[in-house]
User: What shape does this take?
Amino acid sequence: RARDAGEAEAADLRGIAKSMAYDLASFTWIGWDEPGIRITAADEAAGLDAARLNLRLAVELKRGPEPMMNAHWVLGAQQLAHGQFQEATASFERAAEFARQDKNRGGELMCQGYGILSRLLSGTDPGGEQALQANGEALVKEKDGDFFRDQIATARRVLTARFKR
Assistant: This one.
């Protein structure tokens, strides 16, 4: 429908699609470990596709730093769940850059924490344990920091079980 619409309506429709893609990517991420929610392999594949669409639309719509941070974060989260550790690390690094642009220290630390987690799970960060501990200590000093620290810990537990070596 956006292809046949005027410029303003097309942008609105793409914005709605972007929001829906973000929600789908988020709702199909196993890292939340929501009780009673079973996410299938097909759900996860759809979630990764949705995360890519969300980022593409964020770029096309020239979204600001916070939506760009979120778009890179949710893509990184999906990549991490799929064992795409190098790609996830790069996505989390980009997300942290956008958080810095937005002067969002809590978001920056959260994204950095997920990057550390990605490297830990890949086995490429020998100092990762200490880095994750320091990240958590810094996070709790920020708004919503306890929530973000706990979120990273939950994702670590779930994903460690998935990628147990």
Q: What stands out?
A: The mean pLDDT is 95. The helical segments are 7-27, 41-60, 65-81, 85-101, 105-122, 128-139, 145-162. The first helix runs from residue 7 to 27. The radius of gyration is 16 Å.
